[in-house]
Design brief:
There is one protein chain. This protein is an alpha+beta fold. The chain folds into 2 domains: 3-158, 2-Layer Sandwich (Beta Polymerase, domain 2); 171-326, Trna Endonuclease, Chain: A, domain 1 (3-Layer(aba) Sandwich). It contains 9 helices and 16 strands. The strands form 4 sheets. A 7-stranded mixed β-sheet has the order 6-5-4-3-2-7-8, with helices on both faces. Strands 10-13-14-15-16 form a 5-stranded mixed β-sheet, with helices on both faces. Strands 1-9 form a two-stranded antiparallel ribbon. It is elongated, with a radius of gyration of 24 Å.
């Protein structure tokens, strides 16, 4: 099979001459990371000038004439819409959108082409139909997947859940995966190379515990939010430790060091449940409780007493015992 070669510089020149409303272009997706095959489409985020507009059919026509793999996402504020299939991705603002997509700007109206670390040569196999990237959250569905899985993935994205990485088909499955992975991460902290001098894991309070979760999940769940969702209940406000998927999954992390903190955490769990039941988006609330080894606590009883799965939102309480070497 032969390949067609395209120069992104030339495509950019033609695109921006045809549409002077464009202010900046950003590359994202598999071509940005150089992880895709030649079958991957070319995802470009387009920022327009103020009060400018381009009809999607005009951009589709450009892609058809110049490069069939181009998938142009036109941004308006924090939302970008694909001209190919009208799928979309949202963030709080345009800078947030760029950051969450980890898009790289390679052209702007004032400076022209920029010295971006991207592949300027685009190689496409001849005779291949390119399936446009479908996005409902922050993660693209690539056209290289089998058609049945793409259909399944679109349903998952429509629910606001990720497909890259694929963690499960609903919030309950994803929460199960997170609990399992967090347990494995906690166990792994005891197996770090003792010869290392510049990096160590010590869990002395609940903020250390939060940092461990952040390090484990943030690299491949960039939408993980930390203390950025506020719930108001009975005149009081509470910021969630972590939230995912538009607050469908809330994670609260506590640390029990002794008998005093044991009682305080127990009371806190009851109050937090009341808070989050008022939020319409919440599907699962996960209470991840780190307990020091020498604390007298019936792990199974706590998980049973503070877990409620028969009504929405589900409340899960999971106990994690600190490795021996982490005790202060």
């Amino acid at each position: 099979m032969t390949d067609e070669l395209y120069d992104l510089r030339e495509l950019t020149r033609a695109l921006t001459e045809a549409f002077p409303q464009m202010e900046a272009l950003y590359l994202f997706g598999s071509r940005r990371y150089r992880t895709g095959s030649p079958r991957s489409d070319v995802d470009i985020l387009v920022r327009l000038g103020q009060d400018s507009h381009i009809r999607p059919q005009e951009l589709r026509a450009f892609s058809s004439d110049y490069c069939r793999a181009l998938d142009l996402f036109v941004a308006e504020g924090g939302m970008a819409v694909s001209c190919a299939n009208e799928s979309h991705v949202r963030a709080g603002s345009f800078p947030d959108l760029v950051a969450r997509l980890e898009a790289i700007c390679f052209w702007n109206r004032f400076e022209g082409l920029l010295p971006a670390d991207i592949d300027w040569e685009i190689r496409l196999p001849t005779g291949i139909d390119f399936v446009p990237t479908a996005m409902m959250t922050l993660e693209p569905i690539g056209g290289g997947w089998s058609r049945p899985f793409r259909s399944h993935a679109k349903e998952i994205e429509a629910a606001g859940l990720p497909v890259q990485p694929y963690l499960g088909s609903n919030t309950v499955e994803i929460a199960t995966f997170l609990v399992k992975t967090l347990r494995q991460a906690l166990e792994a902290t005891a197996n770090l190379n003792p010869k290392g001098k510049g990096w160590a894991v010590t869990l002395r309070n609940e903020y250390d515990w939060q940092n461990l979760l952040f390090l484990v999940f943030k690299p491949w769940l960039p939408g993980l939010g930390r203390e950025d969702v506020t719930i108001t209940y009975d005149g009081q406000e509470k910021r969630a430790d972590f939230n995912l998927f538009g607050s469908q999954l809330i994670v609260e992390m506590k640390h029990i060091r002794d008998a005093n903190t044991k009682g305080a955490v127990g009371k806190t769990l009851i109050g937090l449940r009341s808070f989050y039941e008022q939020h319409p988006n919440v599907r699962v609330i996960l209470f991840a409780i780190l307990v020091d080894r020498d604390v007298d606590l019936d792990d199974a009883k706590w998980e049973s007493d503070f877990t409620f799965t028969e009504r929405a939102p589900q409340v899960w309480t999971r106990i994690f015992r600190a490795p021996v070497f982490l005790e202060a």
